[in-house]
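Sequence in, structure out. Go.
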Amino acid sequence: MLGALWVGSRYGSLALGAISGIGIALLVFGFGLKPGSPPTDVIYIIIAAVTCAGIMQASGGMDWLIQLAEKMLRRHPDRITFLAPLCTFFLTVLVGTGHVVYTLMPIICDIALKKGIRPERPCGVASIASQVGITCSPIAAAVVAFVSISNANSFDITIPQVLMVTIPACICGLMAAAAASYHRGLDLDKDPQFQAKLQDPEQYKYIYGGSATTLDREIPQSAKNAVFIFLGALCVIVFFAIFQNALPSYDTLRAVKGATAVSIAEGTSISPEQLVKSGIQAFGMTEIYQKPLAMNIVIQIVMISAAALMIIFCKVDVKKAVGGPVWQSGMVAVVAIYGIAWLADTFFSNYMTELKAVLTSVVSDYPWSIALVFFAVSVLINSQGAVVVAMLPLAYSLGIPGPVLLGVLPSVYGYFFIPNYPSDIATVNFDRSGTTVIGKYLLNHSFMMPGLIHIVVSTLMAYIISMIVY
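Output:
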């Protein structure tokens, strides 16, 4: 299993999901293990959310959001080290993917250069922030998967309750990382390497000659309407997550008196006589109760409906949406989560007894230590959603309480550790000054310090908030 993850990580997210299939094949056909179950619910949510966000991007709505962010940054250029990560963070929170910030990164670099600020300072933490927002987004796979898996393991929590913990905790972590980055490295006028570049006329022209901006674009009203529809869809999702009594309810069967729990399909009416005939009562004493529509279904319905409204009323070119970076990166995430989570479920479900024997004594004494496991797995698989889907059921099976797992949720972001993620690589390329770097020894890169500070501070804050509230 680790071999499949390691080989896949060398080729990127899409290959990581596909090569996980080789791992599944070896486990099933080579070792005779029973195959696990792919995370279909999470995949459907990603498809719906990414389709909606991709159509909004195709409408020009994303350009408007970037333009609003640029106006604020250019109004306060001296505070860009703090404001840039907040902008990238909230863009990701709104859209559910960190791949929406590529247009904003050159602008951040341009503002820093014109203000004489070392671009590494805002760019490094802004790239981290673009991924941090995933555990704070109501439509991100990591958040929805956490809620779904937690509810299935008797930790009843809603999406807004998760966000009440992760958003303040992650903002604290980002501001701590920004504060540490505020005086990071030499000022440009004192940096000998940068000053040497300026002696070359071609380099000087490359660094200071261009200007990245979106302020010269005219945003049509249809693009703004698409944003309003998207934001309205998010509000509807949050409303139903808070007031689940407003959702339609359906007859659901459950076992009582210690019998194995059984569920019938939502929306199915079934009489006691039919229960007996169907043999379901063989599981033990049963009862029928009203269960509200699951939130994973609500998110899919609302997102797909919002996408349809944008297509009809906002003059969206659907082909442009399919070719856009948001939709394409989302589909890559689907393949990655599909393969990785299926591989992990196949392995863990067959070796649960052995894993419990090894890990139970550690997590029973130090339940917070599961954060180290989440972080290590994230370094390998480059997907926060996949980490949640693959590792959270294992964590619950080890007896770790739900509030503890909510408290360590920020730790599922660890793929900044090895700088091979597209947003980090793109940020290095966008920095014309050359101060944002990978580093000669791979791990001494511009994202390591802000990433580690964020993870430690945000996980600690989330843990404290979760323990107080839950």
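Check: Residues 325-350 form the longest helix (26 residues). Residues 78 and 229 are 34 Å apart (CA to CA).
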